[in-house]
Amino acid sequence: MRSGFLLMLACWPLFFGCGESSPPPEKPRPEKVALPEPPIEEDDTVPLFHARHLSTKELKVGTGDPVGENAVELVVQLKGRLTGGHVFKDTRQEGRPLTFRPGRGEVVVGLERGVRGMRVGGKREVVVPPELGFREKKVGRVPPFSTLVYEVELIRFK
């Protein structure tokens, strides 16, 4: 009888518990840590950022009257590149400046707008968002939806 009593005492916690007890403490969960993005390799087909708005930065202020909306023809030297650095247009390397007539679709809309207000001899950086650039079109080695960065020097205008 004594061994039965001891067996009952030993098994009591298994069947009936040990009275009120709090739930076991939760194990601390590991904190979610944001892993760094893998570095983007210099790939000419992947733009590194997209500009949302046309932006300009004066590199050198020219002289004379500024280019207005009524300009008929502009002659510029320019270098066009992607945000990753790939140069897709360089008039100096081509050996002749670019001549275009605003409003005729000869250059992207962002470039037309970006040269307004320039003076002859001035240099300006013009950052063109995809919506004012080539949009969804792939042009040469310029991928669709690319932000374009132009360095423009105004030679003359009429």
What layout of secondary structure does this protein have?
Blueprint lengths: L1 H15 L38 E6 L13 E9 L4 E4 H4 L3 E3 L8 H6 L8 E6 L19 E10 L1
Antiparallel strand pairs: 1-5, 2-3, 2-4, 2-6, 5-6
Keywords for this entry:
single chain; 158 residues; alpha+beta; Chitinase A, domain 3; 6-stranded antiparallel β-sheet; 6 strands
Structure explained in plain terms:
With 158 residues, the chain is an alpha+beta fold. The chain has a domain at 55-157: Chitinase A, domain 3. 16% of the residues lie in helices and 24% in strands. It is built from three helices and six strands. Strands 1, 2, 3, 4, 5 and 6 form a six-stranded antiparallel beta sheet that branches. A hairpin with a 4-residue loop joins strand 2 and strand 3 (87-90). It is elongated, with a radius of gyration of 34 Å. The N and C termini lie far apart (118 Å). Mean pLDDT is 82; it is low at 32-48.
CATH class of the domain at 55-157: Alpha Beta
**Helix coverage percent:** 10-25%
Proportion in β-strands:
15-25%
Q: What's the helix count?
A: 3
* Straight-line N-to-C gap: 118 Å
Give the averaged pLDDT, no decimals.
82
Largest sheet: 6 strands, antiparallel
SSE-based structural type: alpha+beta
Per the CATH scheme, the topology name of the domain at 55-157 is Chitinase A, domain 3
Number of strands: 6
Order of helices and strands: HEEEHEHEE
CATH architecture of the domain at 55-157: Roll
Principal-axis shape: elongated
Stretches where pLDDT is under 50 for at least 5 consecutive residues are 32-48
Please compute the radius of gyration using only Cα atoms. 34 Å
